[in-house]
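Run log, item B.
One chain of 107 residues. Sequence copied directly from the ordering sheet:
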Amino acid sequence: MSVDDVTVVFFARHPERKVACVVGWYRNALVFRKEQQEFLDGQKVKYSAKARAEDCICLQEQERSFAIPSGHIVKGGYGQGTMWYADSDAPAIVALRKQLETYLLRY
């Protein structure tokens, strides 16, 4: 089971700023309900989403400026899990989604 045409955003803690920042994203991704696995060059690779190469963006370090708030900072922010859906109706998260959409359109 999967969902198509999804934007998947990757974020990680910025080493100097000590906050999580967007590092890249997939546009038009296929997101799977259960983890998938394939072999690539003899190595087992596990994944939950995939997209065509031309729909994938990896930002240069100096471009990684869009901060993603944790649940400690903002109600509905990300927690300790490896996935966060940003689907909270909390006003700060609704505003964040709009700002993030605008940010992604710059690329």
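Observations after the first pass:
- Residues 2-105 form one domain.
- The beta strands are 2-13, 20-40, 43-50, 56-58, 67-68.
Flagged for discussion on Thursday.
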